[in-house]
Amino acid sequence: MPRTLSPVIAAAGLVGGYAVARWTKKRPLGGVVLAVAGGVAAREWQQVAGGKAAAGLTAAYVGAFAGSHPLAKKIGAWPAVFSVAGAIAGTAYAVTRKAD
Question: Which one of 26, 39, 55, 87 is at 20 to 30 Å from 18 when CA atoms are compared?
């Protein structure tokens, strides 16, 4: 079993953050979920792959969140969230897999 679960944590943060914001109708609460998962993932990225990788993956995570908004206007909210979650999970896996 791989040592790092960061791809799953990052994807869950994006999907879970959106789900919480949508179902509670409290966007800040969704932001808390997004931020906590991002922080946990970033800490693991730093431990597993180093500071530069963690900074890059954190930037990608924030970019995925930001990018989901215009993408949602084109393909819908849930498809956009799942798309960016898959993209960040794949990116995190690619960057951290050799560190496992």
Answer: 55
Q: Give, as one character, the DSSP assignment of residue 25.
A: S
DSSP 3: S
Tokens of 71: 């993408």
pTM of the shown model: 0.91
SS3 100: coil
Query: How far is the C-alpha of 33 from the C-alpha of 26, rounded, in Å?
Result: 11
Mean pLDDT of 67-86: 97
Cβ-Cβ contacts under 8 Å for 10 (sequence gap 6 or more): 37, 38, 41, 57, 61, 85, 88, 89, 92
Distance CA 97, CA 66 (A): 25
